[in-house]
Amino acid sequence: MSQEFVIEAFLRDDQGKGASRRLRREEKKIPAVIYGGGKDAVSVSIWHNELSKAIENESFFSQVLTINLDGKKESVIIKDLQRHPYKPLLNHADFQRISQDEVIHVHVPIHLLNEDAAPAIKTYGGVAFRLLTEVEVVCLPKDLPSFIEVDLMDVEMDQVIHLSDLQLPEGVQIVAIQHDLEHDQAVVSINKPRGAQVDEEAEDAEEEGGEEGEKEA
Asked: Are 63 and 143 in contact (CB under 8 A)?
C-alpha cells in the first residue's frame, strides 16, 4: 500500500536570493513553486525537514502528492528538486498541479524481484546488472504505479530485459517506446562477472590445448 504524502505550504511574498537565504536560515523553510493546471504559478515556502524526511521514501517521486496551502488542498507531482551541491540540504522545489482526467509524465523506479532466488544467479553464479533504475511513464493519475517490477526468476544467463519486455499496469505506457521501438533500452541483464568469464575462457583454452596435445601424441 502506497503512503500518502501531505506537504504543508505557506504563501511567500518576498522574492529574490536574499529572501530565499533568510527563509532557509531563519525559518528553516525552503522556497517552492506550484504551477500548472490552468492556474497562475504560486510562490510558497515549505518546511525543509518535512520535505527532507519525505524524500527518503522513493515513492515520493512517483506518486500524486497533496499540497495543503492555507487549508486548501491541491493534487500535485514533484517536477524538480534542487539540492545544495555538497551539504545535505534542499534549496528549492517545483510542484505541478494535476487533473484526474489529464495524463501525466512521471519517472517511476524499477524494482527487481527474486534477485537472490533466480536460478541464473543462485545456481549458475550470474549477477544482475542494472542498466536502468527508473523509467518515464505516461498515464492518468489514478493509474500511476509507485514502481515497476522486473521478475528475474525465469531470466536466463546472458539474457537482456528491455523496456518492451516490462509488464506494465493497465493504462500505463513507457514514454520512450510509446510510438516506436527505436529507443527500446536495456533494463537489466544477468551475466557472469568479468573475472569468472576470464577464468572460464582460460579453462576452455587449457582444455583445447590438452586435447590437441593428445591428438599429436
From this structure: no
